[in-house]
Design brief:
Blueprint lengths: L1 H20 L4 H12 L5 H17 L3 H21 L7 H17 L6 H21 L7 H27 L3 H25 L1
Length: 197
């Protein structure tokens, strides 16, 4: 399974910069880069997306790819809805709660069926995707902007999965402690984000 994740991470890292420069129009490249940079513009997005990968790595098996894929798919759909101007209440609160819940899931080493994990991350992806969509700048191509934040999210998930698999290789005693500390820090950061939003 590690071999497949390594291939996935390599493909994502290799093709993200290529995709950013593959368009003929400079405006399209700018739109892609703008979308690609958006998930990196807030610690809340980065923490949640890495946490999805860590959670998937903890669950293992089919969850390694189904959990991140669910997040990316739902996020993309919610991003389209956000781009059309449809309003969604409590977006910032939903994003903050996602960091807390996913951090706790990692800290507590929560083991749930893959379908439940997919439902959980899919729910939180609605808030992240909507935020990406509504924060798209005027005059930017929605297609290239959307492709940018989808690629960035996939990269962050891959980083989380890779980190989770690396932690797992430290042995059961150490990996559990590392995950608990990391998850707790994420949950505390999520609480801080909620108080500031």
């Amino acid at each position: 399974m590690n071999r497949y994740m390594l291939r996935f991470c390599t493909i994502v890292i290799a093709f993200a910069p290529v995709a950013a420069s593959a368009h003929v129009n400079a405006g399209d490249t700018r739109d892609f880069v703008h979308g690609f940079s958006h998930p990196f513009s807030g610690i809340d997005h980065m923490l949640a997306m890495v946490a999805v990968g860590l959670f998937a790595a903890h669950l293992g098996g089919r969850a390694l790819w189904l959990v991140p894929l669910t997040f990316v798919s739902v996020m993309a759909l919610a991003g389209i809805v956000g781009m059309t101007g449809v309003q969604l209440p409590f977006v910032e609160i939903g994003i903050g709660i996602s960091v807390v819940v996913l951090g706790l899931a990692i800290a507590l080493q929560l083991s749930v069926p893959t379908l439940v994990a997919m439902g959980l991350v899919g729910f939180f992806a609605i808030f992240h995707g909507h935020a990406h969509g509504t924060e798209m700048s005027q005059g930017v191509s929605g297609v290239f902007y959307g492709a940018g934040f989808v690629c960035a999210t996939t990269l962050l998930h891959a980083m989380g999965v890779g980190l989770g698999l690396a932690i797992g290789m430290t042995g059961q005693v150490y990996s559990r402690g590392i995950a608990q500390i990391g998850g707790a820090i994420m949950a505390i950061a999520g609480g801080a984000i909620l108080t500031l939003s």
